[in-house]
């Protein structure tokens, strides 16, 4: 789901809010009975697969064209508080266009490893995911060989895919950033090393955030409309897994401040924003656009912070138009 501005800034605000509210949190009025059962942890979705990379178990989903070889490969990464559920519409649409699509849950999110011992720096996340993609490219019966990957990241995921692009420009055909503050570094969650702060944040998460009411409130703000019961259940189910609160604490403690050298990005970049995004404002996209040499920015009218949920076809159309333009450029260059 993400949130206003940069991930680390949000973590700092969450800590302060948790400290202020921890003394008055209460058990939520609505109990999430049946939600966990809708998404069994060992096979939450029909497309679910698992891979263990360096001791970290990753949950991912795959959509591929039905009757032909893929025209390209694209990785989808979710926002803070999101998961592969965020791509339940966009993944199949991109597969219909001919792409092999892989959506991955980052450690501490979705149905991947809780990540209690994982270091969540962008460098470590980049290395983990490139190792994962390398395995997909080399394993038997995996995707057909191709020159590289398109990387799409929403909010927090956009920061990870930007780091991945900087780390392996030769393996990245293009970067797609959706509503992500990649231009401005900000403070980390170092306060979470203090035990009383960790207790306050965990109490707040369990009683006020990882609840039907909490998820409903966040999605309403992110979407610009009330969410459906299905949307609330899909976002809440992985948050109800045992120790997910501890996983978030570990993520917040180790994610660190970063300063992405956007001027050094070599592959083409598409910046896609919801026109009504109040969480990561258009000015954040404009700031990144001004710094990235080969970039284009598009705005989806009427969409909020999560266009893959609310306007998946419009987002897919922008992505496909941009990819086709890149292909045309390649032909001209040849």
Helix fraction? 40-55%
CATH topology: Rossmann fold
CATH class categorisation: Alpha Beta
* Largest beta-sheet characterization: 8 strands, mixed
Number of helices: 12
User: What spatial form do the alpha-carbon principal axes imply?
Assistant: globular
| C-alpha end-to-end distance | 41 Å
Q: What ranges have pLDDT less than 50 throughout 5 or more consecutive residues?
A: 3-7, 15-29
Class by helix and strand content?
alpha/beta
CATH superfamily: Alpha/Beta hydrolase fold, catalytic domain
Mean pLDDT: 87
Count of discrete structural domains: 1
Query: Nearest-angstrom radius of gyration?
Result: 19 Å
Largest sheet: spatial strand order: 1-2-4-3-5-6-7-8
- N-to-C series of helices and strands: HHEEEHEHEHEHHHHEHEHH
Beta content comes to: 15-25%
Short structural summary:
The chain has helices at 7-21, 35-38, 90-96, 122-138, 156-167, 195-209, 212-223, 229-239, 244-254, 282-291, 307-310, 312-333; strands at residues 48-53, 56-63, 72-77, 99-104, 149-154, 172-178, 269-274, 295-300. With 334 residues, the protein is an alpha/beta fold. An eight-stranded mixed beta sheet has the order 1-2-4-3-5-6-7-8, with helices on both faces.
Overview of the structural elements:
It is a single chain. Helix content is 42%, strand content 15%. It is an alpha/beta fold and 334 residues long. The protein has a single domain (7-329), classed as 3-Layer(aba) Sandwich (Rossmann fold). Strands 1-2-4-3-5-6-7-8 form an 8-stranded mixed beta sheet, with helices on both faces. Strand 7, helix 10 and strand 8 form a beta-alpha-beta unit. Residues 3-7 and 15-29 have low confidence and may be disordered.
């Amino acid at each position: 789901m993400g949130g206003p501005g940069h991930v680390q800034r949000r973590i700092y605000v969450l800590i302060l809010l948790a400290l202020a509210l921890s003394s008055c949190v209460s058990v939520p009025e609505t109990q999430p009975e049946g939600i966990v059962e809708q998404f069994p942890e060992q096979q939450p979705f029909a497309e679910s697969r698992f891979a263990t990379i360096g001791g970290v178990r990753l949950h991912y989903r795959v959509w591929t064209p039905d009757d032909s070889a893929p025209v390209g490969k694209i990785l989808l990464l979710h926002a803070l508080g999101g998961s592969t559920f965020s791509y339940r519409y966009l993944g199949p649409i991109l597969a219909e266009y001919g792409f092999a699509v892989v959506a991955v849950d980052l450690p501490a999110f979705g149905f991947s490893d809780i990540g209690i011992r994982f270091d969540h720096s962008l460098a470590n996340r980049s290395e983990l995911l490139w190792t994962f993609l390398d395995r997909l490219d080399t394993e038997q019966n995996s995707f057909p060989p191709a020159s590289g990957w398109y990387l799409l990241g929403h909010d927090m995921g956009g920061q990870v895919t930007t780091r991945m692009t900087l780390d392996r420009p030769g393996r990245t055909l293009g970067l797609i950033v959706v509503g992500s503050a990649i231009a401005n570094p900000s403070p980390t969650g170092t306060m979470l090393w203090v035990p009383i702060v960790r207790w306050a944040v965990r109490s707040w998460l369990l009683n006020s955030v990882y609840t039907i009411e909490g998820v409903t409130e966040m999605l309403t703000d992110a979407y610009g409309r009330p969410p459906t019961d299905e949307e609330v259940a899909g976002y809440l189910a992985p948050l109800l897994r045992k120790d997910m609160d501890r996983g978030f604490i570990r993520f917040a403690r180790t994610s660190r401040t970063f300063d992405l050298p956007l001027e050094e990005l070599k592959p083409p970049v598409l910046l896609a924003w919801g026109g009504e995004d109040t969480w990561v404002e258009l000015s954040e996209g404009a700031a990144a656009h001004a710094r990235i040499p080969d970039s284009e920015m598009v705005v989806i009218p009427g969409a909020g912070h999560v266009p893959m949920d609310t306007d998946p076809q419009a987002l897919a159309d922008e992505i496909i138009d941009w990819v086709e333009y890149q292909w045309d450029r390649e032909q001209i260059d040849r």
